[in-house]
Amino acid sequence: MFTFEPNKTYSMPPFFGGAEFNPNAEGRVNDSVEINFTQITDGNRLADYLPKGFILLKPELHICFGQYRQIDFLAGGAYNIIRVTVPVYFNGMRDKLVGEFNLVIWENKTAPITGGREESGMPKIYADIEDFHIFREKYFTNASFEGNTFLRMEMINPQPIQGQWLKEVRANHANLNGLALRYIPKIGAPGADLIQAALYPASAKIKSAWIGKGSIQWTKLTSEQNKHQAHIINSLASLPIIETKPAIMTKGILSMKPITGRVLK
């Protein structure tokens, strides 16, 4: 009969064996390129998405496209990611910290989705996400599902960030607190078996950075086009945009540290 060993960690399916717990383990992305977009929107609308304990700090929607290559935990493989977050303060009974609350994370590979979803509490779902296209001073990409494009992201005329400004960008990426709500639904019944606020730490060593004009374009979809995601996409597409700030592109090394994550209380 299969039995769990208390000193090991397990993933689905668990009965083939677990791994020794390593408190120093991290997921290293040796070639990380990200473009971060910031949009000013209605703070009251954003706050409606936040669970109890999370306080909105700014009426900002942060949308990040990441192109990750040379990934250690994928044997040198790659994937792309789109994170939609808002800046928050978590005011718990025990924990009090500032971070980015993840509303939704799209990724185009199964392994990082399963590793970061139920196991770490991040709201990861699948999408087809194009690599960067670079054409005449324009960086652009798009995300789609089953052939239906729902998001296009552009950065135009990027200019290098240098000096003190680059130091500030590096400092802002030295410690990254990814926050989310871990939700495990019941089987065969309404409601949840588990609801927890979760912390997913990360850090980045930024080698270089650029700034340019940013553009975000959502396309609403019907439930027939995207049954499981249309309500997410359409909610984000319906937010009123007051201003789109310049986009920031960074290149460097990203260290994901889920093993040091924890349940927030």
TrEMBL record:
Name by which UniProt lists this protein? Acetoacetate decarboxylase (ADC)
Organism name: Clostridium ragsdalei P11
Query: Which Gene3D superfamilies does this chain map to?
Result: Acetoacetate decarboxylase-like
- One Pfam annotation reads ADC
| InterPro entries named in the record | Acetoacetate_decarboxylase, ADC_dom_sf
Task: List the molecular function annotations (GO) for this entry.
Answer: lyase activity
Highest taxon in the source lineage: Bacteria
